[in-house]
Backbone:
């Protein structure tokens, strides 16, 4: 039985915080309260290495006195409410006016419908899924190691403010990573895949484990290629990895600090006409779906890259006020970001895209990708695993990893999406920002490798 | 606390297969004061408090945590930890593991705090941050964005173990940072300075935010208006300042010597390591100038602790000695797996609801002593015929075994005939870990250590690590620069 608070219990906590804020002199306040159960199971070398269960109730309070603002957050302790509110009041009272503070929503918004998606799992059911992943990954005797994690979250969230605005949401998610190593002689090869969804069935653990293991096995006996540009197929993991960077580049927070490469380029065609990305928050099966953001603003689907043209940035209320536009409901804490990218698929299968490449490479996963100089969109990173050579339309062998250094303008100049959309959690930031995408394989006309890896 | 910890342990200690329980009460009070372009920007305070029970049973771990601190919730959390341990044993490790031995301790410890920031007037702290922020963009229209911040994290841990430890620690972390983004005809350039240590407000005063404000303003403008781009595909001599050297140590020495990575237990997220157990004691990691030591006992640094979150006493551990790889970072379980008698004391958890994992604390390149090396950066530059001097982190990337890296620095200088001749921007450099550390050609006796409150590790619930790195100004040869 999952041990989380009901909507009514969360609303009571929120009301108490709002009431205490008023009693201590706040003109207005807004509070978000969460109750969550999380089971995070981690495995390596074919056994469970870490396994945790967390029950937490936390809150965030923002209050204003005139144009002065105080923020306070943390775990909920009902015997400390006066003290916690007083801390926020002190912060507001002794701060100067904040003319960029947008205030709170003053009229109840009409939020889009988003069905409840609650599922319950026990620790033993989760460890059974881990067992399934390990068993299915052992496709032959060359599979020497299986690692991964499985993360189950279920919770409720209530947002209320002094103007009687109320928003609430509940839901569950499951996500994880499967990583398999194969070894033969002195050679070793690894491969990995992320999974994301609402329930176990969404993850297709057995099939994913088998696919990853097969790719690890096929990755043995690696050759090498020279640095330089190659026609490239991005597998789902690789496509998803760089969606984080697209999210940063289209964040209004990055407009304000002059780091977005798309500053002053709204409406310009920067990429291939076949490249369209929508922040599909209304999709109930999306790992990162939402009907309102952390400001309490309604969230609707937004196409931010349309046929290669940058059409929209992600805003929260604060950034929108500063930049003189309307918010589009993309507040993530104090930041603003599109987190549910859905790339418009093409007509061809992955096999057909590979068949169209005469001389190129297939990249399964990318790793440690960071902007080198964000204003010119240059990113560096490496292939993590599953780098394969393509010749005359066929995969002919595996390769040692390579480092790439390339700009977004260059790599997405020629993009052809496949028709094989699946859901992927972002490998690095998925669990932190709730970043997951429904994305296809991509063919890139050119992708630049800048140095050779050693494994 | 003692009574509740005892009740939690007793509620599970008679169960069949019970081996060890650790109960950790944690409370953390935090304060961040931020100003951006002269205005308050999302300053906040927070408080989190809770308890975690970690149990070892049937050769497996269980862990549960809650923010509810009443007796029933704590006992229920202990029982949840037991259930989790049973679920872990459902997919068991084949090999029986006996945790590395550690004495039990009864102790109370606090870092030195001369001026407690939580007992100061809020206005005093805020006005210092605001004044520095205003100075960083004053009298210029080139600085278009600037931020200044102070932050304090007051971590209080009360640790109990079923074998008798009872340890209280107060670790007050404090930091300040300031940045300026100037926009010139060729686009924006950012310059930032920061300080992160353990101690009180006196450390913010020593950092001198006003002095740092002048520096970031001056150098961001210089970068945006006068600096030349780093020469393209330049191969030659590179000098790193202690801050950037620290990043180099963190990424290419620290992470690959975490034993959980080495043994494959971080393969799903952080990656593995090229520094495998067969290389311990015989790998030529760098040349004879390279001595890298872990030491969490240094007072005042970020990452300083007296005990880790398994109750292991912190100690000094050599990692690389005269170029040879000699040591890993471990916890009690992983130390035992490679036959080491004691843990190195690297088991840390970010908060009450985080499970302890192997984390770096302080790892530094040792500076030469006596008459060895160069006195300071001026003497090192004077000895350099042709090269580039890179300062402070801008961007980083390294592969999952920690071999191929590409980093860039915020600002740098071209050196010719022993003198700085011009300022450079967008300096990137790339290398392979043992080749890079094998190319060290000069160290200064002067050294600096810098704290970094932002190391991410742990999946799927990523934890933040608080670490310190640094050492002397260090010169490397035949480095590939100007990649991007």
Residues:
């Amino acid at each position: 039985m999952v041990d989380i608070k009901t909507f009514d219990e969360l609303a009571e906590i929120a009301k108490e915080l709002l009431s205490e804020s008023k009693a201590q002199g706040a003109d207005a306040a807004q509070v978000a309260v969460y109750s969550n159960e999380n089971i995070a199971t981690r495995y390596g070398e074919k056994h469970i290495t870490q396994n945790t269960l967390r029950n937490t109730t936390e809150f965030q309070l923002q209050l204003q006195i005139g144009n002065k603002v105080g923020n306070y957050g943390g775990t909920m302790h009902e015997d400390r409410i006066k003290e916690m509110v007083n801390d926020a009041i002190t912060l507001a009272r002794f701060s100067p006016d904040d003319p960029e503070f947008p205030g709170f929503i003053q009229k109840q918004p009409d939020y889009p419908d988003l069905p409840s998606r609650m599922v319950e799992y026990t620790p033993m059911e989760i460890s059974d899924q881990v067992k399934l992943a390990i068993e299915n990954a052992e496709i032959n005797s060359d599979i020497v190691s299986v690692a991964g994690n499985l993360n189950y979250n279920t919770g409720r969230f209530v947002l209320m403010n002094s103007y009687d605005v109320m928003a609430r949401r509940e839901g569950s998610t499951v996500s994880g990573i499967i990583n398999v190593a194969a070894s033969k002689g002195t050679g070793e090869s690894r491969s990995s895949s992320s999974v994301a969804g609402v329930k176990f069935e969404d993850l297709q653990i057995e099939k994913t484990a088998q696919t990853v293991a097969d790719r690890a096995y096929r990755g043995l006996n690696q050759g090498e290629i020279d640095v330089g540009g190659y026609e490239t197929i991005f597998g789902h993991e690789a496509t998803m990895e760089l969606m984080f960077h697209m999210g940063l580049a289209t964040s209004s927070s990055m407009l304000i600090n002059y780091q977005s490469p798309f500053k002053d380029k709204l409406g310009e065609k920067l990429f291939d006409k076949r490249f369209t990305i929508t922040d599909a928050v209304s999709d109930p099966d999306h790992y990162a779906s939402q009907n309102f953001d952390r400001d309490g603003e309604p969230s609707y689907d937004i196409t931010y890259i349309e046929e290669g043209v940058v059409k929209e940035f992600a805003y929260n209320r604060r950034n929108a006020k500063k930049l003189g536009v309307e918010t589009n409901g993309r507040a993530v804490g104090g930041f603003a970001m599109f987190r549910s990218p859905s790339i418009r698929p093409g007509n061809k299968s992955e096999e057909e895209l590979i068949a169209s490449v005469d001389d190129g490479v297939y990249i399964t996963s990318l790793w440690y990708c960071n902007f080198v100089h964000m204003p010119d969109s240059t990113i560096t990173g490496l292939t993590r695993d599953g780098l394969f050579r393509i010749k005359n339309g066929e995969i002919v062998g595996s390769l040692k990893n390579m480092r790439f250094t390339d700009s977004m303008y260059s790599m997405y100049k020629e993009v052809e999406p496949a028709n094989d959309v699946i859901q992927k959690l972002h490998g690095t930031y998925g669990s932190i920002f709730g970043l997951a995408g429904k994305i296809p394989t991509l063919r890139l006309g050119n992708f630049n490798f800048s140095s050779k890896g050693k494994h | 606390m003692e009574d509740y910890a005892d009740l939690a342990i007793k509620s599970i200690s008679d169960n069949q297969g019970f081996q060890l329980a650790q109960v950790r009460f944690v409370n953390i009070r935090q304060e961040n004061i931020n100003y951006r372009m002269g205005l308050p920007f999302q300053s906040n305070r927070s408080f989190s408090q809770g308890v975690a029970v970690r149990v070892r049973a049937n050769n497996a771990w269980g862990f549960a945590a809650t923010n509810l601190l009443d007796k029933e919730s704590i006992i229920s959390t202990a029982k949840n930890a037991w259930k989790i341990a049973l679920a872990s044993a459902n997919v068991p490790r084949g090999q029986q593991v006996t945790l590395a031995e550690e004495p039990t301790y009864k102790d109370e410890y606090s870092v030195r705090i001369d001026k407690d920031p939580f007992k100061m007037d809020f206005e005093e702290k805020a006005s210092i941050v605001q004044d520095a922020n205003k100075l960083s963009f004053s009298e210029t229209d080139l600085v278009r964005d600037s931020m200044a911040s102070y932050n304090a994290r007051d971590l209080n841990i009360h640790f109990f173990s079923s074998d008798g430890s009872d340890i209280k620690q107060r670790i007050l972390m404090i930091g300040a940072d300031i940045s300026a983004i100037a926009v010139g005809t060729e686009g924006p350039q950012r310059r930032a300075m920061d300080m992160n240590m353990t101690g009180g407000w006196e450390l913010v005063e020593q950092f001198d935010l006003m002095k740092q404000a002048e520096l970031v303003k001056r150098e961001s403008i210089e970068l945006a208006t006068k600096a030349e781009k780093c020469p393209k595909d330049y191969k030659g001599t590179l000098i790193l300042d202690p801050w950037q050297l620290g990043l180099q140590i963190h990424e290419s020495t620290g992470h690959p010597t975490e034993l959980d990575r080495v043994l494959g237990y971080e393969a799903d997220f952080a990656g593995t390591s090229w520094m495998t157990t067969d290389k311990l004691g015989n790998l030529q990691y760098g040349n004879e100038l390279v001595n890298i030591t872990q030491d969490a006992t240094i007072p005042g640094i970020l990452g300083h602790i007296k005990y880790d979150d398994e109750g292991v006493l912190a100690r000094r551990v050599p990692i690389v000695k005269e170029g040879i790889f000699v040591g890993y970072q471990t916890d009690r379980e992983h130390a035992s797996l490679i036959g080491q008698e004691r843990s190195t004391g690297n088991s840390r958890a970010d908060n009450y609801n985080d499970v302890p994992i192997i984390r770096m604390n302080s790892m530094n390149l040792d500076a030469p002593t006596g008459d060895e090396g160069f006195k300071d950066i001026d003497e090192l530059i004077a000895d350099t015929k042709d090269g580039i001097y890179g300062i402070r982190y801008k961007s980083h990337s390294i592969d999952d075994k920690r071999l191929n890296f590409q980093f860039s620095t915020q600002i740098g200088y071209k050196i010719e005939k022993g003198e700085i001749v011009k300022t450079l921007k967008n300096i990137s450099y790339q290398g392979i870990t043992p080749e890079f550390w094998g190319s060290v050609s000069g160290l200064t006796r002067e050294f600096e250590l810098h704290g970094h409150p932002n190391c991410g590790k742990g999946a799927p619930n990523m934890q933040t690590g608080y670490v310190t790195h640094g050492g002397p100004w260090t010169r490397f040869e035949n480095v590939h620069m100007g990649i991007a």
